[in-house]
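Subject: sequence -> structure tokens, single chain

Hey, anyone have a minute? Need the predicted structure for the following. Not urgent.
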Amino acid sequence: MTVLDTIGRTSLIPLRHMVPEGSARIVVKLEYENPTGSMKDRMALAMVEAAEADGRLRPGGSVVEYTGGSTGVSLAFVCAAKRIPLQIVTSEAFSREKRDHMTALGARLTLVPSPTGGTTKALTLEMIETARRLALAPGSYWTDQLNNTDPLSSYERMGEEIWGQTRGQISAFVQCVGTGGSLPGISTRLRAHKEAVHIVAVEPEESPVLSGRPSGSHKIEGTGVGFIVPLWKASLVDEIQTVSSQEAMETARRLACDEGIFAGTSTGANIAAALRIAGRLGPDQTVVTVAVDSGMKYLSTALYAHT
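Reply:
Had a minute. Here:
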């Protein structure tokens, strides 16, 4: 057994205090139980091992990626365990904790400035182009997460975990869209068991591109890259909910204080949307959502710095 074998098999627990009377039950998959405190550990391992298996990443080679932070931390963890050099392109728009964590695990960072201080389409595209240039170096493998289908199998396994943990008692699944990999992977497996599961995608209210509206700057890290990502599959989604950065942060703080679940901003967005869906479905139904990552990644940000 290695440290990489500790990825996955995370807990699923019910909210006990935040859900109003008369609403559906909400249960939360605690993905911060993964080694780096993020569900992205699943995708990072899948991307690296698939590339090793088919020769895209050769012995002695290195990995390159652009990231808002959590994918980078997860790749840094996987690459450290496998002794693979890693070059990360990220930005000061994302939390200092994530950047420090990547560096601690041995990644080399290239920072791209964000004029707005938030996530925008322009920032994402500049990070992608920077990674593209770095990946031209001999022996480099660019994981290119927005176009990489290798993680889908890891999220299908997560869907199987959810199905087993709920014993099939699931009415709706709610999840933020970032790279676009987790929602189709999980929902495909859930729907293979029960076609009627209601799938809800969540995106930032300030950048509602999946809803067909203009992109903008927001502060929900790991979501809303500013354009429709290649892995997005509208046919798998029944509904799109938008959540503002402010509501996501307020809900994450409530989640910490009222439930003891210490998570990040995208988790706050997930819970905010899940509460709406639960209120609409009513009793005797179950809504599943995800605590995407740990609040420890955001202590220096506006989410927790002044609470």
